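input
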Amino acid sequence: MSVTQSMVGWDVGGAHLKAALVERGKVVDAMQVPCTLWQGIEALDSALASMHARWPDLRTARHAVTMTGEMVDLFPDRGAGVAALVEHLGEALGPAVQFFAGSEWLDCARAKHAWQRVASVNWLATAQCLARRVDDALLIDIGSTTTDVIPIRDGRVVARGRTDAARLETSELVYQGVVRTPLCALAQRVRFRGAACNVMNEWFATSADVYRLTGELDARFDQHDAADHRGKDRPATCARLARMIGRDAREAREAEWVELARTFRDAQARLITEGAQEVLAASGLSIDAPVIAAGCGDFLVREIARRLDRTCGDIDQLLEVTGTVAHWVRTCAPSVAVALLLASLPAAQETRLACGS
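output
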């Protein structure tokens, strides 16, 4: 697919690279590939190669970038992480690249200097894009690793925090996801066969195991190895879940392990709902404001909306995206958002950006 004179949005995470292709203001494609950035910058090169295979003319496009990957422990600190990623992406994507900084766009040199404004603001891009299309809403983006809970009121993003540290304090960032979260982070104690038992604080299983057994996790978004690097079929998944409570899978029927998975699901939904309730209490949003779902955990957003007694819509609907790409748009929302935001700038303003003024 040619991307000449097109806009490509990028969301560079620590576990995935997400990208979206926008042509004439419309989203025409989106994708996500694994990017285990904590293992080395080579992971980003491999992920970019996958994107090049899908969009061969990548260097001829314009590029809008946001990131969270600066947080990984490959880098000594976040500033060094932003600088390394900016430099790497500038070399890989060419000169027509701009970095999202909330209220403005920065070229490579300015992005490295003002790294605090570039670091981990992918959630803000999604929220700003949504705020152009809805007056009042609670955006909940549940990804593989984290959840963003972002209030929009009167067409403005009214989040109290901006940095990860501040957003953790306000519960606008809940460190829970539907693929990579270890189950010991969901609950310390669960019920099994009518009895309460402690959960092992070991990385024996992750949230992907839960949602494989409940049948809710789309296999397209289950892109990382299981905790034990074994299979993802139901017997192997049950075996990992059993270890969390000191058992072997053969000790119970599959239906009992599915019930245990539902117990962990309930615990995770409760944790995220509590965070959403805190955000709502501080936001001043009316009871009529809907929840808008994004992320590969959109199925869990709908459950949380039910618990909040609010209607729920999907971000791809508001972006008027249909067909097979819609679910990828939901999953890759920040990359879609930065592409749409930069593509919407007047041509004269884009020219000034390209010149670094």
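quick obs: The chain has 14 helices and 14 strands.
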